[in-house]
């Protein structure tokens, strides 16, 4: 699981919200992006809970960016909607916590661990501002 549909929808929503002059409700966003409203609402609430979006209640309610695009890191966005950091494979981050107990025999683990580190670093540095350029 690297980037699922939930992560894709979160990033697309952030792009639209970054260009909005006022908070947007989930229904407007779901129509504009052709995303099921109930699925999108959960994604938006998760980002609000993790300090990426601000949620407004009431008639003129909706969502807006809580942070500047330069301060919204893609690693944080993905982790907020997925409930965990993105992973190349469901492989243990440590040889010593390998569920099979055979990490020392696994020739893929060193490669996957190095790849995961590069992906984590890239996503930790990639901001919404970079995507908007």
Automatic annotation (TrEMBL):
Q: Superkingdom of the source?
A: Bacteria
InterPro entries attached here?
Tscrpt_reg_Rrf2, WH-like_DNA-bd_sf, WH_DNA-bd_sf
Q: Name one GO cellular component term.
A: cytosol
Q: Which Gene3D superfamilies match?
A: Winged helix-like DNA-binding domain superfamily/Winged helix DNA-binding domain
Matching Pfam families: Rrf2 (PF02082)
Q: Name one GO molecular function term.
A: DNA-binding transcription factor activity
What NCBIfam families has UniProt attached to this entry?
Answer: rrf2_super
Q: What is this protein called?
A: Transcriptional regulator, BadM/Rrf2 family
Q: Which organism is it from?
A: Sulfurimonas denitrificans (strain ATCC 33889 / DSM 1251) (Thiomicrospira denitrificans (strain ATCC 33889 / DSM 1251))
**Lineage of the species this protein comes from:** Bacteria, Pseudomonadati, Campylobacterota, Epsilonproteobacteria, Campylobacterales
């Amino acid at each position: 699981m690297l980037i699922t549909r939930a992560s894709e929808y979160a990033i697309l929503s952030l792009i639209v919200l970054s260009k909005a002059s006022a908070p947007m409700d989930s229904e407007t966003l779901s129509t504009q992006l052709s995303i099921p409203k109930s699925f999108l609402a959960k994604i938006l609430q998760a980002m609000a809970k993790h300090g990426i979006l601000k949620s407004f209640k009431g008639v003129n309610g909706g969502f807006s960016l809580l942070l500047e695009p330069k301060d919204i890191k893609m690693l944080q966005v993905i982790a907020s909607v997925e409930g965990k950091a993105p992973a190349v494979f469901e492989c243990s981050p440590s040889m010593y916590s390998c569920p099979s107990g055979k990490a020392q025999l696994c020739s893929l683990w060193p490669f996957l661990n190095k790849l995961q580190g590069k992906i984590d670093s890239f996503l930790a540095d990639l901001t919404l501002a970079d995507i908007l350029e």
